[in-house]
Design brief:
The protein has a 5-stranded antiparallel sheet with strand order 3-6-15-9-13, with no helix packed on it. Strands 2-17-7-14 form a 4-stranded antiparallel sheet. The chain has a 3-stranded antiparallel sheet with strand order 1-18-19, covered by helices on one side. A hairpin with a 5-residue loop joins β11 and β12. The chain starts with a strand and ends with a strand. It has 3 helices and 19 strands. The chain folds into 2 domains: 56 residues, no CATH class; 230 residues, no CATH class. By secondary structure, it is of the alpha+beta class.
Length: 295
């Protein structure tokens, strides 16, 4: 059935209406938000693990928390984390901001920055694993190897053990954590630069989803800093204390400007065809889903 758009006006009135339609179509819709947290709205796409230099062939992908320590203790640890953002495919024109929301289980004795980076593409295919701190789960990621096969063999990280200093890109965000930070409450790392956030999501959708690398700013310095966070494996079965531990899993909050709906472009094209017809023929017309028909 043909759907009629009643455009039976003189040419000036119709031109004004078509101009309004053009304005509505020309600009994307802002203010959309995507929230990704395991267990919410059927989402189950978060992967995370700790890389531990003190136990460099161990995998920690199945442990219900992830941990950061500095090198002052001689055993720095880092975190790898990624989210499945495939639901963003084709729905955004720009990404306005990205927030990684974590919930601390422990906080350091003094202030230190938690820093957020993106692993380089060559490190993007890291494997979370399922161990809770046991040596050599073949094919999974450890401090020493991107894919640990035996206690001495496997595929090296680009940049060296633990991704070294060159196995990840520039700093994306950082937030201070200290003994005044409240455990079990939101701790946010926010990428507020729209260009950077858009580039990051574009990369996740078109190449390896490298996810994030987290480390402490004081890594390698004297003193001891340690903090840990609930992770995607956190549940009431393996975590004591919080009444709803599943709600404390890592969360990715993506604020974006939605891409214009294709149907609006169709309407604009039909309107433009109608205007051209009116200008050529000088009379009113009906516009249907198949084009322009004369009275």
């Amino acid at each position: 059935m043909c759907r009629l758009f009643h455009l039976c006006f003189d040419r000036k009135a119709l031109s004004r209406r078509l101009s309004l339609v053009s304005c509505l179509v020309a600009f994307p819709v802002s203010g959309a938000t995507l929230l990704l947290q395991d267990g919410v709205n059927g989402y189950a796409g978060t992967e995370d693990t700790t890389l531990n230099s003190g136990l460099p062939v161990f995998n920690y992908g199945g442990r219900p928390y992830v941990e950061l320590t500095n090198g002052g203790s001689g055993v720095p640890t880092r975190i790898l984390m990624r989210f499945d953002v495939s639901t963003l495919t084709g729905v955004y024109s720009t990404i306005d901001s990205i927030t990684l929301r974590l919930y601390p289980t422990t906080v350091p004795g003094s202030a230190v920055n938690v820093q957020l980076y993106q692993p380089v593409e060559a490190n993007g295919d890291w494997v979370e694993g399922t161990s809770s701190g046991f040596p050599v789960e073949p094919g999974t990621s450890s401090w020493n190897k991107k894919f640990q096969q035996t206690s001495t063999t496997g595929t090296d990280w680009t940049g060296g053990a633990g991704l070294g200093t060159t196995g990840y890109g520039a700093l994306l965000a950082q937030t201070e954590i200290s003994n005044t930070t409240t455990a079990w409450q939101p701790f946010d790392l926010t990428i507020s630069d729209s260009f950077l956030a858009t580039s990051l999501v574009n990369d996740w959708l078109t190449a390896n989803n490298e996810g994030f690398l987290l480390r402490l700013s004081e890594e390698g310095n004297a003193g001891y800093y340690q903090t840990s966070f609930f992770d995607a494996e956190t549940s009431s079965l393996n975590t004591g204390g919080p009444p709803d531990p599943e709600a404390l899993r890592p969360t990715l909050i993506v604020n974006y400007t939605a891409a214009p709906e294709p149907g609006r472009f169709v309407l604009l094209m039909l309107g433009a065809m109608s205007l051209i017809t009116l200008r050529r023929r000088g009379k009113a017309a009906f516009v249907c889903a198949h084009g322009v028909t004369d009275e």
